Amino acid sequence: MRVAVLVYDPAWADHFQCIKADLATALQNVPYLSIEHVGSFLIPGLYAKPIIDVDIVVDPKHYPMAASALSYNGYVFKPEPTGIDRMSFRYSAHALYSGASKPTEDGSVRRPVYLVMLTASSYRNHIAVRKALLGHPELVSEYAQVKRELGKRDFRDLGQYAGAKSQILQKILAMSELDEDTVNDIAALNRWTLKKE
């Protein structure tokens, strides 16, 4: 399978604002902390899959209420491999699995949505990568080059594609504000997840 990797487009920030507004409406009765764009299309100059990754930060005691609100508003729960500290949802108007390489059925932007707690490794990983890239333009250039090259290759699945990015992501995490133990924990979790996919 070929993973679509596109050049950065500033219009994606507007797409996120629309998605965020829709999610805020869906979660109007749920106490949440934030709705954050955590994917590559947030970073100017970075190539990315044509999707907008969204983390919704929620206190774990509100997970059931948040999951119910998302389900009621067109999101389908997608179980993660054991060990991942988040709940994943896909928008029901989109195919649940496309390899992020096919246009959506309704023409809207594909949007994986994750319920996470503030201390979740997956959330800390997303935020650390985002901050490191925003603070180090040279990393953006290097990561963009890796993604351009990966966009030319065929992969068995998204797990194999993700594994092909692990070396550059380790470098990015090493330049982040996270301590070494946390970086190692995230790396171990990512390696374990790739084995399960």
From TrEMBL:
Name this protein carries in UniProt: GrpB family protein
Pfam entry (one): GrpB
InterPro entries assigned to the protein according to its UniProt record, in alphabetical order: GrpB/CoaE, NT_sf
